[in-house]
Every structure is written in C-alpha cells, then in structure tokens.
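Saturday, quiet lab. Running sequence design on the structure tokens for the scaffold JK sent over.
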C-alpha cells in the first residue's frame, strides 16, 4: 500500500520518481513489446535469461537467488550467458556458508567443521543442512542445497575449481574467527583485525569473481596482477554494510566496528547507541566512513579493467549503491536508531547511471563524495582527513575525466598547501554562514516572544482584538468589492487645507 509520506516525498523529488519509472516500467514495456529503446532514456538488460531452456534445478536456484538478495539477483540475471549460472551458484554457495556462520544458535563445535568442509559438500550428491534455527532468513536454501550441488556439477571444471577454492578459503577464515575467543567476547579488536575480517568475508569474493571474469574472457588478465583492486572492491561493500548495520548487528549480539576506533569516543560500545552520546557516536562513525573511503578510488580503477557491459553493470551498480549508502550514513544519527537505506528512487537513479559507462559511475561517486564533504563539520576530529580523502577520490576522477571548473581542480589536489588554505577558507565561510543563520533565528525567536508578550499584555488589559479583526476584515471586503473610500479628513489635500485655514498668512 502506498503511504502518504511516499507520495509527498516523490512530489518533492520528481527526478527519483522518473528514475523508478525508467527502471521498472520501461523493463515491462521492453519485455512485452520487444521494442529496442534508447539506452539513455530507458534501461534495457544487456542479456536476458532463457528460462524455457533451463532445467528444473536451475530455475529453483534462480528462485533462491531472488529470495536471498533482490539487489544482487537483478544484476546477476542480466549477466552474459557464459557467466550467468556460475556467478549465481557462487553467490548461493557463499550465502549458504554465511547462513551457517551467522546462526548464533549453532554451537561452535558443530559450526567449525561445517565451515571448513563446506567446499567438499559442493560435489556431494543430495547434500543439505537442516540444523539452522527456524527463523534464520536463508534456512530453506540449505535445506534444498541439493539443487545447487546438481547445477554445480554441470558448469565448466575451471569455474568449479575457482568456486571451490574461494569457498575453502572463506570457510576456513570464518572458522578461525569463530574459534577466536576474544572476537566472540568483544568483537573485532584492532583495525588490522577488521581489515582481515573484511578480506575473508568480502575480499575473497572479489578475488573469486575476478578469476571468473578473466577465465571467461570478460575481464582484463592484468586484474589478477593487481589483487589490491579486487580486494578494495569487496572491502568497500563490506565496510559500508558494517557501518550501516551497526544497530541490527548489535541487537544480534555482534560487534564489527573495531575497538581501536570506537574506544577513542566511548568507554563501552553500547554507548554509541544511547542518545546522550550522540555527538561521540557521530564522530566515531565519521572515522569508520573515513576508513571505507580509502578503498573508493581503487574500485573505480577496477571497473576500467572489465571488457563486457553486463559484467561492468554487475560490478558498478553495487559499488555505486555503496558510495550512496556511505553518504547517507555519514553523520546521520538515525543509523544508531534503526537500519537506514537509500530510497527506491535514489536506487533507480543510481542503477540507470551505473549501467551506462565509467564516466557516469565516476559522476555518481563524485556527487556523493561531495555530499560527504558538504556534511563534514569542523568539530569532527576526522574533519581534515575526510576532506583530504574526498579530495583524493576527486583527484583520481579528475585524472581520468578532466574537467575545466576551477573548484574541481582545487578539490583534486588534497595535499597541496593552496588546497588546505582553500579548505580552511571554506570552513571559515561555513562557520560564518552558520553563525549568521543562528543569529537570525535568535532574533526572529526573540521578536516572536516579545510580540507575543505585548499582545498578551494588551489582551489582559482589555484590548478588543476581536473588534480590530472585524474592522480589518470589513475593510478587506470593501476593498475587494471596490466600495472603499478614505474617511473624511484623512487625505493629504484636506489636511493641507486645514493647515492653511488655521495658519496666519
């Protein structure tokens, strides 16, 4: 059911409504009429699934893909036919692994061997797992995992080897963390541990996908020689999710923000979620966002190494969503109260832009980096570092797609003394505008209070505001009817005549 608030939101933001129509309605038109619509106006999938040619178990796998992730499901199902099923199975395999790791009801002695041996289950006919708690979101995927096994055996041996290898590495990494008593008690300790955790749960995904892309011929082989690029791709997504999901994870008794960061701002992690520590929590989240921004420019570099449009779309859309989510979370107190997400309209805008080319993806990154820079405040201990990190991203974008605007050139030189001076001046201007606004608000409030007191005092002393209002109302009605005439003796000519009558000449 459509909410009134949603209607009002899209009345104020019609561009987002247009993007929703572009993405969903145009897809329906394209599918039903087989029209080839201009890509600049409508989104049209590069490739479409041929469901009538798929096996029963394959269709079941894609049904689970829809249930486990709506966002990834859409981009996976538009992949080139060569990569469609392998990437789908890779995702479902890791989702199954993650479902076991996430379930806190499974004892460590049961969970650890399951994770370490999960890669071997991919070739075990009929294998399934029914030990998850009933409320676990993706429990049914593991209950019917035999369909994933069936389809896994059909794909090329090279793809099977890649998926098994990545599952083996990730399962063992997860098991190591489960057996880490300190991690189970207080969560992630140092930033170094945080980076390692993100490597196991996301960086390895980036490695696996890159190997699949290169094996299929749709990724530049040089990407395998630059592992820091696909590592950044995975870490950027994972770090964004960890930042956004702080409340949800804490409610589930899981802490992923490293103690090395949050202990600078509060004594106990749970203090971040208390209203009385809101300023400290915002400063802490700023430092987390700063950590994530350090991976952003390498994500854009990675995208330049992809050779096929559907593969580019598959990688670009999640990264663009991540930078938008990061901008939404930055200095947003609501993230400590509930799980926040970008609107559907924003998501569709991003997807439309991210299915075009690298230039438009860079524009998405630049727009949201500037939003972060705009929300940055001098009172934040990370203020200068965040400004420099934003400038570094803009500098990278500027090096690929140069612009002619002076302000872009200034922002793109974060280490230059002139840039620091410009940032200082911008900060002073921002503070001056803020002070002026606060002064005007204070004066306006004082005027309202004084006026209220004066009218209240007049009313207590017997002033008849009802008669005054009635007189004003009658005067307005006479003016509207064209019957108004100035009262006798009120015109300037009559006053001047009286003055002549009484003055001696």
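Result came back. Writing it out in full:
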């Amino acid at each position: 059911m459509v909410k009134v608030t949603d209607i009002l939101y899209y009345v104020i933001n019609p561009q987002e409504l247009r993007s929703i129509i572009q993405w969903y309605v145009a897809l329906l038109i394209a599918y039903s009429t087989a029209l080839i619509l201009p890509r600049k106006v409508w989104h049209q999938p590069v490739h479409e699934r041929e469901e009538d040619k798929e096996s029963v178990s394959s269709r079941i796998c894609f049904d689970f893909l829809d249930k486990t992730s709506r966002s990834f499901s859409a981009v996976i199902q538009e992949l080139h036919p060569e990569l469609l099923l392998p990437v789908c199975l890779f995702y479902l395999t890791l989702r199954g692994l993650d479902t076991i790791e996430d379930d806190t009801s499974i004892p460590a002695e049961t969970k650890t061997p399951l994770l370490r041996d999960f890669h071997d289950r991919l070739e075990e006919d009929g294998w399934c797992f029914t030990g998850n708690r009933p409320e676990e979101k993706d429990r049914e995927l593991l209950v019917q995992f035999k369909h994933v096994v069936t389809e896994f055996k059909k794909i090329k041996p090279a793809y099977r080897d890649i998926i098994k290898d990545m599952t083996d590495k990730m399962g063992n990494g997860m098991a190591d963390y489960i057996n880490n008593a300190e991690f189970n008690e207080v969560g992630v300790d140092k930033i170094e541990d945080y980076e390692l955790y993100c490597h196991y749960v996301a960086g390895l995904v980036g490695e696996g996908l890159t190997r699949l892309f290169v094996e299929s011929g749709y990724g530049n082989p040089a990407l395998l020689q630059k592992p820091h690029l696909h590592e950044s791709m995975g870490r950027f997504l994972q770090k964004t999710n960890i930042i956004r999901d702080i409340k949800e994870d804490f409610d589930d008794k899981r802490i992923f923000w490293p103690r090395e960061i949050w202990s600078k701002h509060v004594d106990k992690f749970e203090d971040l979620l208390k209203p009385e520590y809101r300023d400290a929590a915002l400063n802490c989240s700023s430092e987390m966002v700063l950590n994530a921004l350090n991976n952003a420019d390498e994500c854009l570099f990675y995208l330049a190494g992809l050779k096929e449009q559907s593969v580019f779309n598959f990688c670009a859309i999640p990264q663009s969503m991540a930078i938008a989510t990061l901008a939404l979370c930055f200095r947003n107190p609501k993230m400590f109260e509930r799980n926040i997400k970008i609107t559907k309209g924003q998501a569709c805008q991003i997807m439309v832009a991210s299915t075009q080319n690298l230039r438009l993806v860079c524009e998405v990154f630049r727009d949201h980096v500037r939003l972060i820079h705009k929300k940055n405040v001098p009172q934040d201990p990370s203020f200068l570092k965040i400004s420099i990190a934003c400038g570094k991203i803009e500098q990278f974008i500027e090096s690929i797609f140069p612009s002619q605007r002076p302000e872009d050139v200034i922002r793109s030189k974060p280490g230059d003394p002139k840039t620091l001076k410009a940032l200082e001046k911008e900060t002073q201007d921002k503070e001056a505008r803020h002070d002026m606004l606060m002064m005007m608000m204070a004066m306006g409030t004082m005027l309202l209070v004084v006026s209220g007191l004066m009218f209240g005092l007049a009313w207590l002393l017997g002033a008849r505001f009802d008669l005054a209002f009635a007189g004003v109302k009658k005067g307005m009605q006479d003016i509207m009817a064209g019957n108004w005439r100035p009262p006798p003796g009120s015109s300037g000519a009559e006053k001047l005549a009286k003055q002549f009558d009484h003055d001696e000449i």
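Notes for JK: The longest helix spans residues 417-460. The chain has 25 helices and no strands. Ask whether to fix the surface positions before the next round.
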